[in-house]
Amino acid sequence: MKIYQLYRKQRLSMSRQQAWGFFSSPHYLNDITPDFFHVDITSPVPDEIYAGLMISYRMKAVGGIRMAWLSEVSHCQKPLRFIYQQRIGPFKFWSHEVKLSECSDGVILEDIVFYVMPYRWLGELLHVLLIGDKLKRIFDTRHDYLQAKWGIQTQ
Fold first, then answer.
1. Are 11 and 103 in contact (CB under 8 A)?
2. How many CB atoms lie within 10 A of CB 22?
3. Nearby residues of 94 by Cβ (< 8 Å), 6 or more positions away
4. Sign of the CA dihedral 37, 38, 42, 45?
5. Which residues pair with 75 in a beta bridge?
6. Who's near 20: CB < 8 A, 6+ residues apart?
7. Could you tell me the mean pLDDT of each successive run of 10 residues in the chain, 155 residues long?
8. Is this structure's pTM higher than 0.90?
């Protein structure tokens, strides 16, 4: 079983409270992801997330095929970090930590994702041929959107 990791780090010109409000809400997912990855939230979502919160989605991620995804907020330390993990969905395992730390001109956002493909060798092949690139594009789009809206220019 191969464990994959995605890691992104970005400085944003916003307060930690603003960042928490944006990133902890699943209502902004379609703003920060490419068009091929459309998400419909199918469960009620409270104003504040908390550890143990379950959120269900329907999404189109590969070839326009709609699939169900159930995630649980497994850890929540407002306004520092939260982790959501897939309970039902396309991966054998999925964990995404969103970490926010203050810096002199805003916040540092870190996305730390671990995942495992299903179906053993077939899943590994699908990862090489399709899934790995799709996930990279999702996080590239996220980075570009955030950079355009709140990005800090570095010299």
1. yes
2. 19
3. 85, 86, 113, 114, 115, 116
4. positive
5. 83
6. 78, 79, 100
7. 95 96 93 88 94 94 83 97 97 98 95 97 93 93 95 69
8. yes
